[in-house]
Amino acid sequence: MIDKKLYSEIRKINNIMRNISHNSLSQDLNLSHAQINILEIINSNPGIIQKEIASIINIKASSMTELVSKLKNKDLIYRKKDDTDLRIIRLFITDKGKEELKNITKIRDENEKSIFKSLNEDEKENLYSLLKKINESL
Length: 138
Known about the structure:
This is DNA-binding MarR family transcriptional regulator. 72% of the residues lie in helices and 9% in strands. It is mainly alpha-helical. The protein has one domain (2-137): Arc Repressor Mutant, subunit A (Orthogonal Bundle). It has a three-stranded antiparallel β-sheet. A hairpin with a 7-residue loop joins β2 (77-81) and β3 (89-93). α1 (2-29) runs antiparallel to α5, α2 packs across α4 (61-73) and α2 (33-44) packs across α5.
């Protein structure tokens, strides 16, 4: 019986955390989670191609094209043809995109503080250890 209760509470927390994250990031920055993921991937992998990103986040090429176009239209990324193979288009983050990532980090930090404010440091450490143990067993 306790397994069902634990599972239920973890699902509730997951949904709440997802909603908090989605609402704050979408409202404050006007970016979807997929756009944020793509921005972070491009920042970590300058010059990556769309096909590689689509593979990483498991979305269709057509959806990828739309998401990348929206980021480009917001001036958060830019496209550049490959120096050796002009058929390949590489993606890079703009300075504005880097600033947006700083805002994302700030909002996430605020969300984390809000979500875990009811726990003291020992409780946070214990929770982390237990969740990590579960995660490693999956």
